[in-house]
Amino acid sequence: MGYVKQRTSHRMYLLVFILAFVFSLFSVVYVHYYTLVVPLKQGSPSFVIKQDVDASRSYTSAASSASLMHSIANKKESFQRSTDDLSYSGKSIPLMDFKDLQKRKKRFLLLVTVGSAPQRFDRRQAIRDTWWKFCHEKKVKCVFFTDGITKNQTLLTLLLQEKNRYKDLELQPLPSGVQFGQRFLNSIKWATAKFDFKYFLKLDDDYFVCLKRLLFELPSRPKRNLVWGSFHCEFGISWADEAFVIFSADMIRKFLMQDKKKMLCHPFADQQFSIWMKHMTKLYFHDTRLHHDPPASFTPEFKEMKNLCDSYIGIHGTYVEEMRKFAKVANDGAKETVETVPKFSSFCPFKDFDYRKFSPKYYFRPKPCIQNPTWKNSTFTGREDEHILRQDDL
Predict the structure, then answer these.
(1) Is the C-alpha dihedral spanning 88, 127, 288, 198 positive or negative?
(2) What is the pLDDT of residues 222-249, one digit of tens each?
(3) C-alpha span between 385 and 341 (Å, rounded)
(4) Hey, is 46 helix, strand or coil?
(5) Which PANTHER family does its entry note (predicted)?
(6) Residue 75, pLDDT score
(7) DSSP 8-class letter at 298
(8) Which of 206, 198, 240, 214 has the alpha carbon at shortest distance from 313?
(9) Residues 336, 340, 341: CA angle, nearest 5 degrees
(10) What is the spatial distance between Cα 258 and Cα 276, in angstroms, rounded to a whole number?
């Protein structure tokens, strides 16, 4: 009997030791690798950084600690890959993927891309209710881009609902912040992978666009080397404002043909693509029909103006209330005449660009895009919020 008790006692000790070892092993694994999967609240999707991988299956089908370790190792490897591999499957966050559709690409005259902060649903909805309605024409495709990586689970849920409902929202593999250059790079990579387009329009979400007028005159515009927007002219330099800029398709291809190891990124998209174009052949079109500054919503002359699209082709600083007001009095459509592209020298004698000439607020050294760079002390307050802050100080 004593021998039986002793043997049972040894078995108990052995069992406790095995359980303790297994628990310790899983604890180490969890602590070391838990950042590879960012869980959402119960019932929500999970964030997985790998194409064609379903995290839930990987974990539930693991029959042993060895298979579990192998699965986690695969996820660690995929996490270290470039953003080109960011995708989704199963119940994961549907970040934009960059898989090239090749011969299955749909063709459009114009691809419209609108950058919008995740919380700016009101602006996106105001656009959908107004000039976005003309996006359903066969020759144009319109897409919103916003940041898809966020710790705010309520906001993420709302974004997923919006994406599923309207089918016009793409989630960037980026967190919020001053990363306008990297957002632009992602958008043109995604666009060229998914569509065959003649012109690419980059927009801010506070721009009212006379889209029907724009579509009418696009076929008569230059088809190569075109950079069309509202330009800034300072001593020695000039650049197109990033709030509204149209590139011909060949310019987008030139951007993406740069050596990936040498391609430079910048917090601000307009400085970034101006750096890229420094030694490229380009045709600048400074369009005075683009109202840039001050914001139209705070400009008295726009309050009672009728037939806006007779005088303008785009109006910057148009916020939610004015977006709907302008749509009612826009008179958008084809106009009788299409003006020729004026010589850029009549507006500005300079076509060079140098980021070093910017004021401290906008001065940042460019860094290799391949490093997925960030910049310290880079914050950006939109013009609407700046106006509100100034009014509060009065």
Answers:
(1) positive
(2) 999 999 999 999 999 999 999 999 999 9
(3) 35
(4) strand
(5) BETA-1,3-GALACTOSYLTRANSFERASE 6, BETA-1,3-N-ACETYLGLUCOSAMINYLTRANSFERASE
(6) 42
(7) G
(8) 214
(9) 140
(10) 9
**CB-CB contact of 357 with 234 (8 Å):** yes
pTM, to two decimals: 0.75
Q: Which amino acid is at 372?
A: N
d(CA 308, CA 90) in angstroms, rounded, equals 46
User: Virtual CA dihedral for 216, 269, 178, 243, nearest 10 degrees?
Assistant: -30
Helix (H) or strand (E) holding 66: helix 65-79
> Which residue is listed with tokens 């790998």?
50
Contact (Cβ atoms closer than 8 angstroms) between residue 137 and residue 226:
no
What's the mean per-residue pLDDT of the chain? 82
Cα 40 to Cα 302: distance, rounded to the nearest angstrom: 45
Amino acid identity of residue 203, one-letter, is L
Element (H, E) at 367: strand 367-368
Contact 82, 111 (CB under 8 A): no
The predicted model gives 74-81 an average pLDDT of 40
In this structure, are residues 88 and 97 in contact, taking their beta carbons and an 8 Å threshold?
Answer: yes
Q: Counting Cβ atoms within 10 Å, is residue 51 exposed (0-12), middle (13-18) or buried (19+)?
A: middle
Tokens of 58: 């990987």
Per the listing, tokens 């683009």 go with 290
Distance of alpha carbon 4 from the chain centroid? 70
Query: Residue 56 in contact with residue 91, Cβ under 8 Å?
Result: yes
| Residue 310 near residue 210 (C-beta atoms within 8 A) | no
Please tell me the predicted confidence (pLDDT) of residue 351: 94
State how far the Cα of 159 lies from the Cα of 157, in Å rounded to an integer. Answer: 5
pLDDT (tens digit per residue) in 84-136: 333 333 357 899 999 999 999 999 999 999 999 999 999 999 999 999 999 98
Rg (the chain; Cα; Å)? 26
H or E element that contains 79: helix 65-79
What is the model's pLDDT at position 285? Answer: 98
Bond before 294 cis per omega within 30 degrees: yes
What phi and psi values does residue 200 have, to the nearest 5 degrees?
-125, 120
Buried b (16+ CB within 10 A) or exposed e, 331-342: ebeebeeeeeee
Which secondary structure element, helix H or strand E, spans residue 49, and what is its range? none
Query: Of all helices (H) and strands (E), which one includes residue 225?
Result: none
pLDDT in tens, 145-189: 999 999 999 999 999 999 999 999 999 999 988 899 999 999 999
